[in-house]
Amino acid sequence: MIYQIYPRSFQDSNGDGVGDLPGILARLDHLVTLGVDAVWISPVYPSPMADFGYDVADYTGIDPAFGTLADFDRLVSAAHARGLRVILDYVPNHSSDRHPWFVESRASRNNARRDWYIWRDPAPDGGPPNNWLSEFGGPAWTLDTATGQYWYHAYLPEQPDLNWRNPKVREAMLDVLRFWLDRGVDGFRIDAIHHLFEDERLRDNPPNPEWRPGLSPARRLIRTHTMDQPEVQEAVAAMRRIADSYPDQRVLIGEAYLPIDRLMAYYGAELSGFQLPFNFHLLSTPWKASAIAALIERYEAALPPGAWPNWVLGNHDRSRIASRLGPAQARVAAMLLLTLRGTPTIYQGEEIGMTDVPIPPERVQDPWERRVPGLGLGRDPVRTPVPWEAGAGAGFTSAAEPWLPLSEDGRPASVAAQARDASSVLSLYRALLALRRAEPGLSVGAYASVATDADEVLAYERRDEVTGRRLRIALNLGNRRRELVGFAPSGRLLLSTHLTRSGEAIRGAMRLGPDEGVVVELGSASGTRTEA
Question: If pLDDT is split at 50, 70 and 90, which confidence band does 39 have?
Fold first, then answer.
C-alpha cells in the first residue's frame, strides 16, 4: 500500500508556507496509524520550480525549499524505523534548462555535451523542425538564437529533453539511481517514461480527428512519433538491472498513460521491466458497474504471467476523487481501491476526502494553466495543502499565507477532527487498510467477478488460495437502496463504507443502502454464481 506525498503541500516545518522534508518526518506517525507500507515522495531536487520540481537542476541534491541531504537521510532512517519504505520520484526524460549539462550543451554546437539533449536544425522555412507539440501547449521546439538550432522539450521550454540515445547520458542517469539507492531509498516512481525517446527521423505526428476546441491543444495531434517508442523498453530494463543489483527488493513504478495492451509491455520481457507500471484506467473509466467490471476483467486478462497488478484513484495531476464522484461515492471508491487485487496507491488527502480547491486567478501557480488558461487543465486545485487541524494555517503552516490556498469553506474536516470521528472518511480508510492487512485474501488473493441482478452494483470475490477463505465485496454505485438476492447463502458483514454496520449475519439476500459498499465473509457453503 503506497501513499503519495506532494511535499510542497504536506507539512511546512519552518513557516515559509511551503511543505518540506522535516514536515514529512513530523507526520510519519499519521501514515503508520493509517496503515500504509510505503511513501512515494514527489521531486525534492534542486529546481528553479518552473514545473515545481519536475525541472531538475541537480539530480543528486535537495532543494533548499525542502531542506538538506541530511534532512533526507533523517527522513529515510525515521521511515525505516517505523516500517515504512521510501520511494523517490525520478525524472529521466528531461532536466531543467538551468542544469549544468544543458548550460554546457547550449554553449556551442561543438560542445562535448551538445548531444546530451535533442538539438536540430530549423525547417527550410526557418521554423521548428517538425509539427510536434508540447504537452503544456505550444510547439515542442524552442530556438536558441545563439547557435541557430532548436531544442526539443516534451513539456516546458525550461524542461529540455535528455538524449537517451547517447550512452553517456544513459550512464549518467543510471548513476543517479545508484546515488539514491546507496542512500537507502527503496525504489523509484519514474516520471513520464513513455516520453523517453522520440522518433529519430523526426516524422510529423498525424492530426487527431477527434480533437475539438476546448480540449488540450497538445491533443490536436496523435503522439505517434513522440511517445512509447520501441527503445524505451531497453532503457526500462537497464533501470531494473540497477535496482536488482541492490540487496532487498527495490521497486520501480512507471508513469505511462497508455492503453492497457501497450501498458503491459512495461512489465518487460520475462518481467524484466517495472514491477508496477501505473494503471491509471480508473481515472477515466465511467463510474458505472458494468464499465468498471469490464475494465477489471480486461486488465486482469492482459497481465503477463506472474505480473502483479496495481490501481490508482488519483494523483497530483488529476481531479480529486471526491470532486469527480462526490463525497458519498468517494467512500465507495476507497473500498474498491483497497479490495481489488494488486497494489493500491493513495494520494495525500484522499484519506480525508479532500476535494479540488478553486484557485483565484491571482493565486495560480501551475505553468500548464498559465499557458492554456480556462480549459480546466490546471493542477493547482488538487495540490492544495493538507488540513491537519482547525485554525489559521490548518496546522499545515504558521505562515500568513501558504503557497496555495486552503479550502475556504473548511471542508473537509481536518485530520485531527476526523481522527476523533468514528464515522469519518479517515476512519473508513483506517478500517479498510486494517482489514486488508488482516485478510491475505484482500492483499494477494484471487479475484473473481460475481453476478448480481442490480445494474448499479459492482460485486466480486477475493479468495485466500492457501486457506480457502472467501470475502465478497458489493459496491452500490448508485443512490438507491438495493437488495441482492442470493448474494451470500451464509456470511457475516465485516465492514460497510457507512461504518454503521458490522457483524450482521447474512442469509441469502444482502441489503445495500444508497452509496454503500460492503465486505462480507462467506460461510463454508455458497451457491452464488461466480465468473472468473
Answer: very high
Residue 255 annotated as catalytic: yes
User: Rounded distance, CA 270 to CA 306, Å?
Assistant: 9
Look-up: residue for cell 501558504?
402
Q: Is 424 helix (H, G, I), strand (E, B) or coil?
A: coil
Closest C-alpha to 78, from 32, 116, 120, 114: 32
Catalytic pick from 228, 255, 366, 380?
Answer: 255
Lookup: cell for 293: 467490471
Q: Say if residues 425 and 413 touch (Cβ distance below 8 Å).
A: no
CA distance 40 to 24: 11
Q: Residue 26: helix, strand or coil by DSSP?
A: helix
Strand 457-463 to strand 446-450: parallel, antiparallel, or no bridges (unpaired)?
Answer: antiparallel
Among residues 89, 97, 186, 191, which one is catalytic? 191
Closest Cα partner for 60 from 191, 193, 185, 196?
A: 185
Which of 76-80, 275-279, 379-383, 453-457 is the least confident region?
Answer: 453-457
CB half-sphere exposure, 396, CA atoms < 13 A? 25
Q: Is 182 a catalytic residue?
A: no
Contact call for residues 530 and 461 (beta carbons, < 8 A): yes
Q: Are 528 and 489 in contact (CB under 8 A)?
A: yes
| Pairing verdict, β 38-41 and 276-277 | unpaired
Whether the pLDDT of residue 99 is over 90: the answer is yes
